[in-house]
C-alpha cells in the first residue's frame, strides 16, 4: 500500500505541482489542502503518513497551526516549507517538533531526501509498535494455551475432559456455541457440547462421507466459513444454520480422532486466522489428552489380557523369586513336565533340571537377577515326571516383585519342533554357502570384464580398423557384454536387490509383459490362452521385479514348446486361504507352511516337461535345460529370491513329455500391510 502525504499549500499552482507531478512520481498518494481548516477536515476523515506544511497560511497565525497539528497528530511527521523563512523560523519549527525544513524553491531531489528521512523513522516506529503488539498478543495466547493445556492433561474422567475441551474452545474463540464430535466408524457423534440445546445436539449426528465435519476428518484440514449477513447462513446440517463456523481436526499421530467445532448463530462476528490457530493448538492438546485416556484404558485391558495370555499361552511361563523358587506357572507348565501344578509351585527350578547342570544354571540366573548377565536365550534340559527329558529355550527378564524384591520372569519354549526343522534347513544352508561363493566369483570377474568391454569400445573408435579386425573386436565386445550379464545375474542371485514397492495390478502387468516380450515372431506354432480373473486384489510389490519374474517364466514356457509348438496358458485368481487349495496334478508340491489369502498366478505350457528327480532342483542356482553357453541357469533361482523378498511362494509341477506349470502365490496388499 502506498504511503499518503497531506500537502497543505495555499498556492494552487504549487499544490498542483505536488499533486500531479512530484509526489506521484515518487510513489506517494496525495491529499491537498489549501488552508489550515481544510487540512483539519481531511485529517479527520482519513489518516496520513506525513504532512508537508506551508508555514504561512491564510487562516492561521504563523506557527500556531504547526503547534496544533503536532499536538493533535503527534505520531505524524511534519516537514515545514516556506519561501519567506529565516533561521529563527526554522529553529522555532524544529522546537515545535517538525522533522525537517524546506526553503522554496527546492528541487525534487531535495524533497525526496527530506521525505525519505522523515518517513524512515516513522516506518521504524510503526514496525516496532507492530512487533511489540504481536509479541504481547502471542504471550497472551501462549499463557491461555498453557493454562488450558495443564487443565486438560490433569483430568482423568473422559466425560469431564471432553466438556472442558469444548468450554476452552468457546473461551479462546469467543464463540456462542461449541461441540466435539468423535469418529464412530462412518459416523461423527457428539460427545460434548456447550450452549447447544438437546434438540440441536440430536441434529449434530453427522456422516463422515457427506458433511463439512466429515470433510475435516477426511482431509485433516480446518474449515472456516463466515457469513456476515443473516440471509447467507451456513448449513451444518438440515435444521442447524449458523452465521460463522470453525472446524478443526483432532489428530493423534496418524489417526484423526474427531472434530472440534465452534459457531456463532446470532453474532455476526467472523472467525479469524488467529482463532483458527488457537483452536488448532487446543485441538492438539485435546487429541493428546484423548489419546492418553485411550492408552490408559488400553493398558488396563492389556493387564487383563496379559493374565489370560499368561495362563493360556502355549509356551511355559514361570516366575522365580530370589531363592529361584517357582511362585507362578501357567497351564502349559504342568502339561510339559507331566506334574500337577501344586507339585511345581514352591519348588526350586533345580528340582526339574539335570543335577550336574544346575550349578551353572543357578549361577547364571543369579547374575541375571543382579543385572550382571545378558538376558539372551539359552538352552537347558528339563526332567519330566515319567523320566523323560525335554530340551527347552529359556529367556529371562527381571521384574519387580510385590514385596520389592527382584523376581525373574522366564519363558520356556519347547525346542522339539525347532530341532526337527533344522534338518530341513540344510538345503538352505547349502544355498547360502553357494551364494557366498557365487558373489566372490562374480566380483572377481567384474574387473577383467570391465577392462575387456572398455578396451573393446576404445578400439572400435579407431576408424582405420580393417573389416575383419573390426568384426573380431565387435565379437569380443558382444561376448564381454554377455559375460557381464551373466555376472550381474550371479550377483542378483547372491545378494538380491532393493525393493521399490508400489501398488501393482497383476492382470495389467501380465498383459504388458505379454505384449512387450512375446511377439508373433517368437510364438511360432504357440497359442496363448489368457484366463485372468477380473478385479483380483492388488499387491504391494516392485513392478520391475515382478515383470522380470513373469518375463523369465514366460520365456521358459516358450522355449519348452519351440520344437513341437503347443499352448501357453496364464491364469490369475484370488483365494481366501491358500491352505485350502487342491490340485488335480498330484505332482504339485504345495508348500506346507503357506497360510492366508493370496493372489495366484499360474503359467502352464504343454512342452517337454521336467523329469521327476530334477523337479526338486529347478530353483537351485545354475540348474538349466539349455545347452552349454546358452545361459548360466540363474533365472529361476533369481525369480525364487525375488518372490521370497515379496513374502510370496513359487513352486512347480511337471510331467515329462506333457508340460510344466509354475505357480506364484503373492500376498494381497491388504494382507501384506498387516505384516510390514
Task: Furnish the topology, listing elements before pairings.
Elements: E1 4-8, H1 12-25, E2 29-33, H2 36-45, E3 50-54, H3 64-72, E4 78-82, H4 87-96, E5 100-103, H5 108-154, H6 158-173, E6 177-184, E7 187-194, H7 198-203, E8 206-207, H8 212-219, E9 223-226, E10 234-237, E11 240-242, E12 244-252, E13 255-264, H9 273-312, E14 316-320, E15 326-329, H10 332-337, H11 358-369, E16 378-383, E17 389-400, E18 406-414, H12 416-424, H13 426-460, H14 467-495, E19 502-504, H15 506-517, E20 526-532, E21 539-541, H16 543-560, E22 566-575, E23 598-605, H17 612-615, H18 635-645, E24 649-655, E25 659-666, H19 669-675
Parallel strand pairs: 1-2, 1-3, 3-4, 4-5, 20-22
Antiparallel strand pairs: 6-7, 6-13, 7-8, 9-12, 10-11, 12-13, 14-15, 14-18, 16-17, 17-18, 19-21, 22-23, 23-25, 24-25
Helix pairs in contact: 5-6, 5-9, 6-9, 13-14, 15-16, 16-18
